[in-house]
Write a structure and sequence with these properties.
The complex is a heterodimer of chains A (307) and B (682). With 307 residues, chain A is an alpha/beta fold. Helix content of chain A is 43%, strand content 19%. In chain A, β8 and β9 form a beta hairpin. Chain B is built from 16 helices and 28 strands. The two termini of chain B are 30 Å apart. The C terminus of chain B is likely disordered. Classes of the chains: A alpha/beta (307), B alpha/beta (682). At the A-B interface, β8, β9 and α9 of A face β2 of B. β8 of chain A pairs parallel with β2 of chain B, so a sheet runs across the interface.
């Protein structure tokens, strides 16, 4: 079991600076990993190899040569193995929030935290921000200032258009030809039939696709609001709703939708993770790195830090 | 209870509004935003009994607010028995202003004004509270309100006629603004005494010429219910010419000229001017013809020979109105004086005081002063200033004493400390000493700015003497019980300038020499004005002006004691001097001619443009609030109601009540809306 800091998202989102938020989560996570039983599980550790003629002398470890009289070549500690692309939904439905912050704030903080975490591991991270189409695109690259650029794009307030996940996935597939880990952060409130085909296309391109569904607690329980005119944030439709009356029916319909979403992801082999905006961000992050390629990389990075 | 605007009570019908709104259950206006309503089914609205009134307290408040507003707007008042305004408003307070200026001397004007005034009083104003004031350059009461009020109605007209019969117009300017001001004060006083809202009228009987002064009316606050009416005198000539005296002009050795301004009104005119000696009756020089256009003001010079020392007149011939056809001119008196100087100093030695004295008076034209070394029997002249530059011998000291006793003034420069003894021999006051200053120079510490010779420096702009140093100061230390007046003291204490009264005259001693080596005094900017002032005082003070207006006669001589005498007759009382002419003013020292003339504005007899009054904001028409003479019973009752309502102002309390209820209503509404209910909207 991994211990963690479990930072209250309300306190975290009260921090104005997005980078600071990401740092708070990630630093907490590292300290958690230090004390975790995962420590010491070394699998792919390489550090030096003996010099052989033809090797680039820039990588010769001169200190080791001075100490041992043997020529060692420093293996690239910072070579990048993982190419990650975050696809973030900033449509109007993400502006809903029954807490002090909305889903979009939470999702942006999560994206920033992930990016910070991965860049700390010297992975390359890209970003696509979409609503009805991709509004902002930052290709995954290893360069100084990539994190700052990415955070600045995340800090921009969403324009508030309706969701078109199908269009967004199509554009992401076109823009990302290299195999990478594609993290889709959205509320997935549109029917899966609208976007399942394009998601399948991404999977077929051999991208490692993972979906994080961000939902507000009110959307999960409908324990919210009063009898009034309820306005759909996406379409602007107004319906008179008494939540007491409508709750049962809503929960049934919502469970049905969720089942469809889950099924679509399962069929395509896409890893799916549901995150309520109440959930501490480091839990979400830990859940993500517990399996797959991310987990292996994290362990290696942890060893590097402690060693 | 009565209402001033009862039709506003109909507004109370608006109470139906809130009742209906409270009966109707309106659709909620609350909005809730949700991410997606696709999983939500519309809920059926909760039903409520239609007949049930929502929030009855709120409804009651709203109804009350409307009812109070309607009530307040209808201007309610409580009926009370008050005297009908009709009785009050029929009172008239009237001030009649009769122009008595010089221009009213034109043919027929004065009689016309008097007749118009009598006719108006007879026809309209007999029962008014009336006062009549006469105005020229001064305002005088012709008939007071008290006397008019006390006189029985049938005796009023004979009283008015008898009062006006003896009156004559004066020779002064037309200060209509002063007349109206006095009239307004009178009206205010009357209103205060009678405590009524009477109709206030100022009626002006005048020729209303453009030479009248109105500037004092600008920006004046006019009382309510006040109106200014005019009754211009009809008829009379419009062609006129008058002269304004501007002074003498003489360039170098050229001829002496009188500078004159010809003021003409009416048509183009050809005016002939003649200068006539007032004593001999001879014409001076040749007659001069001047052509002037309409509304023209021409400046010209008239040659008067230097030999003309008698007073003379300049007569206008060729215009229609004779009242302003004579300009009286008194020639300037030339004062000349010789100041005797005791001492061996010459006027060319810049190391001696006399050099600087002579330069201080050179170029001074009035009086023309020359300084000469004192010769035999100089002490017999008294009206002069004696300058003592060196220590006088015993003979001279005795002569000085005689001179002073006769009323002369002497200035003694204390060039040597030992000279202090001379003071004793002249003034007879012993015990004066001349101690040395501790510092190597002295400054004036205290100065008596009350004394005539230092008075010219009394203004704070000029009273700084601290930059004048006295190196060779010969101070004077007064004995106890001295009768001398110390005019200036050195900063270390002893006196610097002292004056003694000896007989009729006075001796002024200056503690030090007047050379640049002794002090900075003669080179300072204060020296020349001081020295000239001393000479002026010694000669009996500055001369009086020779040209003045008739109204200035009483103030011309100031505080001096003078006697007035007119040409060809004996002395006359200055206060009774009311007509233009040539007069001789005599004082103890001298006598000179003074010419008194009509103010030149009086020659401008064209009619005053009527819009001038409007521009000055003079109320020319009765305002709406004025009550007409014939007030009907019904109108009087209505006015009465307005008065009562204005006095009680019940609407104010109703408005305050409305505001209070509105505040409670707002609080209640906020509370209800916060508790989740949607209040009905009124």
């Amino acid at each position: 079991m991994i211990s963690n800091t479990a930072i209250n998202p309300q306190a975290l989102l009260a921090i104005r600076d997005l980078e600071m938020r990401a740092r708070v989560v990630v630093e907490g996570l590292w300290s958690g990993l230090h004390r975790s039983p995962l420590h010491g599980f070394s699998v792919e550790f390489t550090e030096y190899r003996e010099y052989s003629p033809g090797d680039d002398l820039r990588y010769l470890d001169w200190r080791a040569l001075a100490r041992t009289d043997k020529e060692y070549i420093k293996k690239f500690e910072d070579e990048t193995n993982l190419r990650c692309h975050i696809v973030l939904d900033t449509s109007r439905s993400m502006l809903f929030g029954s807490l002090d912050y909305n889903k979009s704030d939470y999702a942006r903080t999560l994206a920033a935290t992930l990016a910070y975490f991965l860049i700390q591991q010297r992975d390359v991270v890209g970003l696509s921000i979409f609503d009805s189409e991709v509004r902002d695109y930052l290709p995954a690259r290893w360069r100084p200032g990539q994190l700052r650029l990415l955070l600045s794009k995340l800090e921009r307030e969403p324009r508030g258009n309706e969701t078109n996940l199908r269009q967004a996935l199509e554009e992401v597939a076109l823009l990302n030809q290299k195999r990478s880990l594609v993290l889709i952060i959205s509320d997935f409130l549109t029917p899966p039939s609208e976007w399942a085909k394009e998601l399948g296309h991404l999977v077929a391109m051999r991208h490692d696709v993972r979906a994080i569904q961000i939902l507000d607690p009110a959307e999960l329980s409908l324990d919210f609001g009063t009898a009034a005119q309820w306005e759909d944030l996406e379409t602007g439709n107004k319906v008179y709703i008494d939540p007491e009356v409508a709750r049962k029916d809503y929960l049934e319909k919502f469970a049905e939708h969720q089942a469809k979403v889950r099924k679509s992801f399962d069929e395509l082999g896409v890893s799916f993770q549901l995150a309520s905006t109440e959930t501490p961000l480091d839990y979400v992050l830990l859940d993500m790195i517990k399996n797959g390629r991310l987990a292996r990389k994290t362990i290696r990075a942890n060893q590097r830090k402690s060693g | 209870m009565s209402f001033l605007s009862p039709w506003f009570l109909l507004g109370a019908a608006a109470i139906a509004g809130p009742i209906i709104f409270h009966l109707i259950r309106r659709a909620t206006r609350n909005r809730v935003q949700f991410s997606s309503t696709q999983f939500l089914s519309a809920s059926p609205p909760r039903l409520q009994k239609k007949s049930k009134l929502q929030h009855p307290w709120l409804l009651l408040l709203r109804c009350l607010i409307i009812a109070l507003l309607a009530f307040g707007f209808s201007r309610p008042f409580l009926k009370r028995d008050v005297p009908l305004l009709k009785e009050i408003t029929q009172e008239h307070h009237t001030v009649l202003v009769l122009d008595e200026s010089a221009s009213m001397r034109r043919a027929g004007q004065w009689e016309a004004a008097k007749t118009q005034l009598i006719n108006w009083v007879e026809e309209t104003g007999k029962d008014h509270r009336l006062s009549i004031i006469g105005v020229s350059d001064q305002v005088s009461y012709i008939l007071s309100n008290e006397l008019w009020g006390k006189t029985p109605s049938q005796e009023r007209m004979p009283l008015l006629r008898s009062v006006l019969e003896d009156r004559e117009p004066g020779w002064g300017a037309t200060y209509l603004d002063s007349g109206i001001d006095t009239g307004l004060d009178e009206l205010e006083q009357l209103a205060e005494n009678t405590r009524t809202n009477a109709k206030k009228t100022i009626r002006i009987f005048s020729d209303l010429t453009s030479g009248s002064r109105l500037s004092g009316l600008a920006g004046r606050d006019w009382p309510d219910n006040c109106v200014v009416e005019f009754e211009p005198t009809v008829g009379g000539e419009t062609r006129n010419a008058g002269l304004q005296w501007l002074g003498w002009s003489k360039i170098g050795e050229g001829p002496r000229n009188a500078r004159l301004s010809l003021i003409t009104t009416g048509e183009n005119q050809s005016i002939t001017l003649k200068a006539i000696d007032a004593v001999t009756g001879q014409m001076i020089g040749k007659p001069q013809t001047v052509y002037s256009k309409v509304g023209d003001k021409r400046l010209f010079l008239m040659e008067i020979p230097d030999t003309q020392i008698n007073p003379f007149t300049i007569q206008i011939e060729g215009d229609s109105e004779p009242f302003d056809n004579t300009l009286y001119v008194a020639p300037k008196n030339k004062r000349e004086s010789v100041l005797p100087f005791i001492g061996s100093q010459t006027s060319n030695d810049p190391r001696a005081a006399r050099f600087y004295m002579e330069r201080a008076v050179s170029g001074w034209k009035d009086p023309k002063i020359s300084i000469t070394t004192a010769e035999a029997s100089w002490e017999k002249s008294s009206n002069t200033l004696l300058l003592i530059g060196e220590t006088p011998n015993n003979n001279e000291a005795a002569a000085i004493q005689t001179f002073l006793s006769n009323g002369g003034t002497a200035l003694l420069l204390l060039t040597n400390p030992s000279q202090i003894q001379i003071i004793e021999s002249i003034t007879g006051e012993a015990g004066w000493q001349s101690p040395k200053l501790k510092r190597n120079y002295g400054l004036f510490g205290t100065i008596d700015f009350e004394h005539p010779v230092f008075k010219i420096f009394a203004d704070p702009r000029y009273n700084n003497f601290t930059n004048i140093r006295f190196w060779n100061a010969n101070t004077m230390l007064a004995p106890a019980n001295t009768e001398a007046r110390i005019l200036a003291k050195f900063d270390e204490g002893p006196a610097a300038v002292v004056e003694w009264k000896v007989g009729e005259g006075s001796l002024i001693a200056w503690g030090g020499d007047w050379t640049p080596q002794a002090s900075q005094w003669v080179l300072s900017s204060k020296f020349v004005p001081w020295f000239q002032e001393l000479i002026e005082q010694s000669l009996g003070g500055p001369t009086l002006p020779t040209m003045a207006f008739v109204n200035e006669s009483s103030t011309l001589a100031g505080d001096s004691e003078v006697t007035w005498s007119s040409l060809g007759s004996g002395s006359i009382d200055a206060n009774s001097l009311k007509s233009p002419g040539l007069y001789q003013i005599s004082s103890e020292e001298n006598s000179h001619w003074v010419a008194l003339n009509i103010p030149h504005e009086e020659s401008r007899i064209e009619a005053l443009p009527f819009d001038t009054w409007e521009k000055l904001g003079v109320p020319l028409e009765a305002s709406q609030t004025l009550v007409s003479d014939e007030v009907s019973e019904q109108q009087a009752a209505a006015k009465n109601a307005i008065e009562l309502e204005g006095e009680q102002k019940l609407w104010r309390w109703l408005l305050i009540g409305t505001a209070l209820f509105l505040a409670i209503e707002s609080l209640l509404s906020i509370k209800i809306s916060r508790s989740g209910f949607t209040p009905a909207e009124a």
